[in-house]
Amino acid sequence: MVFVARAEGPWRAGRAGRGMGAEPKRTEEWADVTPDAARRLVTAAVAAFAERGYHATTTRDIAGRAGMSPAALYIHYRTKEDLLYRISAIGHRLALDLLRGAQRPGSDPATRLADAVRAFVRWHAEHHTTARVVQYELGALGEEHYAEIVGLRRETDAAIRGVIEDGVASGDFAVPDVTGTTLAVLSLCIDVARWFNAEGKRTPDEVGDLYADLVLRMVGHRAP
Amino acid sequence: MVFVARAEGPWRAGRAGRGMGAEPKRTEEWADVTPDAARRLVTAAVAAFAERGYHATTTRDIAGRAGMSPAALYIHYRTKEDLLYRISAIGHRLALDLLRGAQRPGSDPATRLADAVRAFVRWHAEHHTTARVVQYELGALGEEHYAEIVGLRRETDAAIRGVIEDGVASGDFAVPDVTGTTLAVLSLCIDVARWFNAEGKRTPDEVGDLYADLVLRMVGHRAP
DNA sequence: CCCCGGCCTGAGCAAGCGCTTAGCCGCCGT
DNA sequence: ACGGCGGCTAAGCGCTTGCTCAGGCCGGGG
User: Fold this and answer.
1) B126 and B45 in one domain?
2) Is A76 helix (H, G, I), strand (E, B) or coil?
């Protein structure tokens, strides 16, 4: 765990200033955050929050990474917490839509569960910095924002529980405790954001496949 | 009388001061931290760190919960980080010993794995505040302390991996990817600390049993 | 041409942080 | 009886924090 480059100029800690197309997905992720400066602030905040945590990150650090003065942050966001809320809301929506969109309507429960888990896990691995903030920093949200985010999380839970219930009803799965198993499956997927390392030898796709298999085993699905 | 004992100074945030044996296990956990004041500081710090996170917790808050003035903390611990390190080291050792001690030497891999997971998970549920600090705040440790703790974590990983390898070798388990599965099993157990709620309807024992079953499924063990 | 409004900066405020210091209190052995 | 000492506190130092504010730069409409 490295301790981040000390600044070079007055602002700008590390990081070449240019946007450059090095991370195409990452850029798309915040595509509808405008104007450009607001988007740069979001990506800077995500990087900082993921690295050090919300409370250990200063507004000066965020602004510095975005190449601006500390005061510029407050033109685009009311508070530091507001910035976290924006990230959290967008991230949760993204993950939830992914989870739902991966399931093709016609297919059997096992395929739907595997597809959902694969997509969900892949996102948590690929965007593990964003996911880290989304999943582990929500305690820093204010009460109202927190309540709103919890709503999205309940939807995510319901989505997974739904597929498992379908599988149990159709006899494809053998699950003694649906609620508990749903919790475990979600927990397993979410925690990918904590340990996944981009420099490691496992790709997001590989982790997705591995986890889809593990989850099918957990719900007692007999391999074909 | 009006001398309001020194027990009730301006500090002391909430919390009735009495020790009383309300939480017997929790007390045993830090049994060999002496003197008494140092132990009170540890339990106060665990509560605060678990609730708000290390960086959002102030030394004044910790001292207040322990019923002392802020300065008293520094008689027993060099820094706030030192306090975290102590908690982290003791917690990691405890969990590791539990994980190893639960496995009875003679038994077959499935029983050993189930026993290990059950004990490990039960600890994470029962002591979820301690476990939260131990598992999710290690990023706040200084470099040397962090390195030391990582050593303990590697031992934990090796312990689980060992049982799984044994099961694969004996033909009891069917695991395509031992390293990945070990990671997933550990991740699943650890994350219990994040979501477990003492007010919830699941007891630590129930979660331990559920998880032992789930893990056996993950490693492809056929139920008896 | 000027002025307007969006974007940004330099300077800085009040509050709170981790930690230190000087000194007090009461229990110990002698 | 008393000196030493471990355990404690009041006070506060130096610094950083989240955030504010008066003003500057610049491109576009009148």
Assistant:
1) no
2) helix
**A87 shares a domain with A71:** no
Query: pTM for the whole thing?
Result: 0.87
B48-79 pLDDT, tens digit each:
999 999 999 999 999 999 999 999 999 999 99
Alpha-carbon distance A212 to nearest alpha carbon in chain B (angstroms)? 11
Residues 148-177 on chain A lying near strand C, CB distance under 7 A? none
Reading the block at residue B163, the tokens are 């049982």
Beta carbons within 8 Å of A40's beta carbon, 6+ residues apart: A66, A67, A68
Cβ burial B166-190 (10 Å sphere, 16+ → b, else e): bbbeeebbebeeeebbbbbbbbbbb
The CB density around residue B62, as the number of other CB atoms within 10 Å, is: 27
Name the nucleotide with the smallest C1'–CA separation from A74.
D19
Does B142 lie at the interface with A, CB-CB under 8 angstroms?
no
> How close does chain A come to B11, measured CA to CA in Å?
24
* Residue B30 belongs to some domain of the structure: yes
Same domain, A95 and A196: yes
